[in-house]
Amino acid sequence: MFIATLIAADRLNHAQVSEACDRLTAAGCAPAGWDWLDESSAADVLFAANPATARQVLEGAWPGVDAVVQSLVTRTKKLLIADMDSTMITVECIDELADYAGIKPQIAAVTEAAMRGELGFEAALTARVALLAGLDEAVIDQCLAERVTLTPGAATLVRTMRAQGARAVLVSGGFTRFAEPVAAQIGFDAVLANRLTIANGKLDGGVTHPIVGAQTKRERLIAEAHDMAIPPEAVLAVGDGANDLPMIGVAGLGIAFHAKPVVAAAADARIEHNDLTALLYAQGIARGDWVV
What are the catalytic residues? Predict the structure, then answer.
């Protein structure tokens, strides 16, 4: 059996869920009934066939409604691998550092191109960091305090999954000076990110190697799953940019979160309208069981 979860916090209605069943019937997916996970916020529709077709007929069918289609058997996840910038937090940290240096438009344009998959991540990161040479180290902590905000639902997602026995790892192409405090605040078990090099209290324009990029994220996911002795189907990966594609591709459920088009097209599901608690609904975890 398969399951389609419709998610629209406090704005999902009975008519939309009934229409979803009708769409699945017309598409030959053989729906077998539905039930609320949380009334007006999330509903589950069971069906027996054609999951790819089910996704096509449900995604984007109603304004403000996200749909996650997956196997019922592997719905519960034991490992979360999550991107940081524009996923667990609302900003791209390198762009915000660039703003303090007075060069945000220049760097943000490169960031955007890299996240769309138009530039190689490692080369783009190296070039952007080089432009920050001479920036006072103290600006990092200032930026963290003034600019970095958790994405709604981030802490609830991680804390709830961990409370249910899952492990959570933050994997970032950003920087340890941001990723480590963010991971601690949210409650991740572990964190992997790039390390800026600093000399005489100032950024020297470098980053330690090897760079944490797309393949590093994928390799960390595989290694974590191996260490936990779980199959890829038990892994949930979430990100927004092209450097998240390899890990999203190998996870049992790869989620594109408010993502660039290239990521949304490749992921198993996309969350475009709701916050990160949608990933709890996707696992069948109702609001009453959330850890906030």
Answer: 83, 85
